[in-house]
Amino acid sequence: MDLRQLRYFVAVAERGSISVAAQTVHIAQPALTRQMQALEEELGTSLFERTSRGVSLTEAGKQLLIDANRLLDDTAAAKERAQRTGRGEIGHLSIALPVMQTLGPLIAEVLRSYRREVPGVSITLSHLLSATQLDWLSTGRLDAGFLLFRPSDDPVFEGLPVYSERMLLAYPAAWQWAGGRPKSLRDLNEVEFIWLPRNAAPLWHDKLIHCFFNAGFTPRASVLGVDSASMLTLVAAGMGCTVLPESAERIAPDVVKFMEVPDLNIVQHWELVWRADNRSSLLKRFVEEVSRYLAENPLQAARHRTRRA
């Protein structure tokens, strides 16, 4: 007994006529008759009562009709689920967001667009530092993450550019600059600077050091933060100045001010990153939808980094 026989059986049972059912399922009447006879022989019981006006179901036939309809429905549902999974339309994704919530509105818009296009996929969100995201991606605990500082020459990962932003000098609003507002990084040599330990973000730390060295600036670091959020808190506490992405200005308290410094000329590049060997159709569809959203909304990122007046 196979699914084709069950479909033939249901057609005959519902129409009460082998000749009518044969036209419906597009096979010759003698062939359909042989299929029903073979089904009865396999089950060892009669399924039809044959009369001059057609066929009607025996008790065994009525029970088989119930079970056959359920099996065919389950088969159709399984086929649809497999097809939707193959198209990346159902399943579960684990996505990481940055700890610093400056990109929250932009990423929220991206995820809202994705959910609108692919409502059948559930998502688990985590807030993780870039280094932790890369570690979790490597071990399969994450499908993708929005992060900074991916090693550009590491073939393990692939990335989709999402957002870029400049760096600004963040300082306590109550500060009085004895020699006037700094015109370059070199002018910060004598002030307290909130620094980032190298093990917190090695690539970013080294990029900053290179920028500072070229500008003739040696940070006077007496206080350390572990990420942008903690460094912003330390600036708000009046413990020093630091460099932060321009989007941090949107969430900073009034006790923190920001300024541009001409030779602070480095840029943060946010990416959506995933493992290069992850062939999940769910992940592929997610990346496609994020890419489509960014292509259709080229000014969205600019709106999210608009500075306060």
TrEMBL record:
Residues 1-58 form the HTH lysR-type domain. Keywords: DNA-binding, Transcription, Transcription regulation. InterPro entries: LysR_HTH_N, LysR_subst-bd, WH-like_DNA-bd_sf, WH_DNA-bd_sf. Belongs to the LysR transcriptional regulatory family. PANTHER family: LYSR FAMILY TRANSCRIPTIONAL REGULATOR, TRANSCRIPTIONAL DUAL REGULATOR HCAR-RELATED. This is LysR substrate-binding domain-containing protein. It comes from Variovorax defluvii.
